[in-house]
């Protein structure tokens, strides 16, 4: 279950980056969306396979995405959706990291 949000966020980021590129020829959107999507994908793989730093990677990707999308949230449904999704994923993975590292 823990890897599913990371893979979902990876898909959302990649689709969001491609959509930003198609709609406005924004190369930064394509690069950033793909880059954060790759971090989420790697994190999901690490979580699923029991590797190291999967939860931390997903949390980092969530923080990066939130920081990039929050200032643009009022500009349309895609940035708003990415901001909300990154906040939810960030909260989920922050709890996972906390439970794994400190709550025992």
Layout of secondary structure:
Blueprint: H1 3-24, H2 27-49, H3 54-69, H4 77-101
Subcellular location: Membrane
Protein name: TMEM14-domain-containing protein
Signal peptide: 1-24
C-alpha-based Rg, rounded? 14 Å
Helical residue percent band = over 70%
Could you list the spans in which at least 5 consecutive residues all have pLDDT below 50?
Answer: none
Percentage of residues in strands = under 5%
Structural class: mainly alpha
| Topology as a string of helices (H) and strands (E) | HHHH
How far apart lie the N and C ends? 20 Å
Strand elements, count: 0
* Largest β-sheet summary: none
Count of helical segments?
4
Query: What is the number of independent domains?
Result: 1
What is the typical, i.e. mean, pLDDT? 92
Instruction: Please tell me what the overall shape is.
Output: globular
């Amino acid at each position: 279950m823990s890897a599913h949000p990371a893979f979902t966020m990876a898909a959302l980021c990649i689709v969001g980056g491609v959509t930003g590129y198609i709609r406005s020829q924004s190369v930064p959107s394509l690069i950033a969306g793909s880059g954060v999507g790759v971090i989420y994908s790697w994190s999901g793989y690490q979580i699923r396979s029991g590797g190291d730093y999967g939860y931390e990677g997903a949390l980092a990707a969530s923080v990066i995405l939130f920081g990039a999308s929050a200032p643009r949230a009022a500009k349309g449904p895609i940035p708003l959706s990415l901001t909300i999704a990154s906040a939810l994923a960030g909260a989920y993975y922050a709890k996972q990291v906390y439970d794994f590292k400190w709550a025992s």
